[in-house]
């Protein structure tokens, strides 16, 4: 049996019925989000409330999630908390997007239908940073200590088998 958030729904019926959903969707369920995560563990929790505003079906979205991303500086895991609060107009015709007030985001709902999962995934994707980075200094390499004099001498005693090759080649000519 499929989860309620994965069913295709008519956005006009949701808006006219002032539908409200409490969601708890595992992060592994989001096909476009999971490749961007270090690990797809945990879930996105929140509520979706549907209304009609300015003649459009609008979803009031409130989401909380903790995403684990890969820091592009050190390539280690980093936590990215998401606390999204937004309003999204669900449009069957993308050409009507210019009639939606600026404070409301828009999302295409082909044939006037969408899944709750798609709305949530879109908001999670929008919350991602362009480049995931730890705070300055959080992933700097540890300070290296200068080696003791005897360690430096041992490091200098390196064999270089081709060091005198040039001299040998000149001598043979």
Radius of gyration: 28 Å
Overall shape: it is: elongated
- What is the tally of helical segments? 4
Average pLDDT score: 88
One letter per element, helices H and strands E, the order comes to EHEEEEEEHHH
**Low-pLDDT sequence parts:** none
Rounded to the nearest angstrom, the distance between the terminal CA atoms is: 84 Å
Percent strand equals 25-35%
Structural class: alpha+beta
Percent range of helical residues: 10-25%
Strand order of the largest sheet: 2-3-4-5-6
Largest sheet: 5 strands, mixed
* DSSP strand tally: 7
Q: Could you describe the 3D structure shown?
A:
The structure is a single chain. By secondary structure, the protein is an alpha+beta fold. The chain has 4 helices and 7 strands. The protein has helices at 11-16, 116-127, 149-156, 165-172; strands spanning 8-10, 20-26, 43-53, 56-70, 77-91, 105-108, 113-115. It has a 5-stranded mixed sheet. A two-stranded antiparallel sheet has the order 1-7. The chain is elongated, with a radius of gyration of 28 Å.
């Amino acid at each position: 049996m499929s989860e309620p958030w994965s069913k295709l729904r008519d956005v006009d019926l949701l808006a006219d019925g002032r539908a409200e959903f409490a969601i708890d969707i595992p992060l592994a369920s989001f096909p476009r989000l999971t490749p961007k995560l270090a690990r797809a563990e945990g879930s996105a929790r929140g509520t979706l409330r549907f209304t009609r505003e300015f003649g459009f079906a609008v979803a009031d979205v409130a989401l909380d999630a903790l995403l684990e991303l890969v820091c592009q500086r050190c390539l280690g895991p980093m936590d990215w908390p998401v606390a999204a609060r937004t309003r999204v107009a669900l449009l069957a015709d993308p050409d009507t997007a210019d009639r939606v007030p600026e404070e409301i985001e828009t999302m295409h709902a082909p044939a006037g239908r969408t899944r709750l999962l798609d709305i949530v995934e879109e908001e999670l994707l929008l919350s991602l940073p362009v480049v995931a980075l730890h705070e300055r200094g959080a992933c700097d390499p540890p300070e290296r200590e200068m080696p003791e004099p005897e360690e430096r001498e041992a490091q200098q005693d390196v064999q270089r088998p081709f060091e005198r090759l040039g001299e040998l080649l000149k001598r043979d000519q």
